[in-house]
Amino acid sequence: ADYRVPDYMEKIYTWCYVKPKNVKMLDRQAVVQTILFGYFQPLANMVCSELKPGQKLLQCGSTYGKLIATVSKKLGPEGTYNCCDIMPIQVASCNRKMSKYPCHGGCILEDAATHHPEEDKQYDAALSFLLLHEVPDDTKRKVIDRIMMSVPVGGKAIFIEYHKPAWYSPWRYMMPIVYWLLEPLAFTVWNHQITELGDPELVKKFKWRKELRFMGLYQKLVGITILTQYSNANEVAQFLERCVEIAVQMMPEELERMIEMYKSLCPQDPDRERQLVVEALHLLYLLVSRDLSSFHAELERISDADMENPLIQFSVHIEGYLTTGRYNKIQEYMQLLPHPLFSYLMAGLVESIRDDIESCIEESYRELSVEDFCRTVNWKGSLEEVLCHIEEAHGNWVVRDGVLVFPRRVTSEKKERMETLGDLIKQINDIETI
Fold it and tell me: Where is the PCI domain (predicted)?
């Protein structure tokens, strides 16, 4: 009963957000696509690319079109999607859309600029979708700050908004006319970076990246909370380093996730040596995984000075020996490890190489003496150990009078040609990627 439509909504946006008939007409996907020059769904997809199923999302301001549907599907039944809007008709529309999907949450009647201390750091991500250009400058700042305060370390602040295009874009000269006629509050976003409008102390706690679309008319700005501004940054980095160590030793399948977490939360670790150890472990992990394209992409990000570090050089040398087939040198490097943690990944790499060599031997020979087999795979153990290994790893091999007899593989000529062609195409794609 005490609710009153804000003055700026009455003066500026009666035509699109206040009158029920207009709201019903505008809240159609085709209309929204037309207003945004066909770019609404690509913008919605850009939001979803930053989210994962099961996450908890706060959206400041409801939205016309199918954004609610697109995001709800992305978050899934385990996710939570909370929204707020200052107009009752928008809240009702948003809740009606949300009710069609199993995602938890809902929309409440509230000014998006309202800060609730109890919700600080409670969301995996917080979103402003084409809202800032429609609210007064003071509200802009409060919305930006609320979004930044709502996410914890590692959380994302996501802004989809208009952007001032480059001088050669026709939108640079057409859109100011549209703003002057219909969106007079948009000029602040047009002339300033979003990060300039928020609390500088909060902005410093995020690592920001920006993408431009449609000749620079739209922007996606994403901030990820980092630890460099926190007093306990070193302690947290030590904890994450320990997580990486445990993953290397006991849970190799989790190693890449632990490394990515360390890199995203500690991009400027005060301990440079620790940062290089994690980077070198990541490179070695990519080699063990035989992901050469990602290995070379990661090398491109490393500075020339860091490339000379022995930790990084170790992985570079191993990659060189792998690509040239000098597997004996890789085994020699097992005695030259620059860090104890490397031994776990190197053991896996050596075992993987030996498996490949043994597969090649089986393909290439009908029979081979055990002595020649040991020499080929550079076996360092005793005869009893190699026979035990053969029995466990290759149950279809037969040892007869000191000679290994391999099973004959029957493959059609056509299938062999297709396999060879497939391998060739894969190699060409890998080389092109590198």
Answer: 247-422
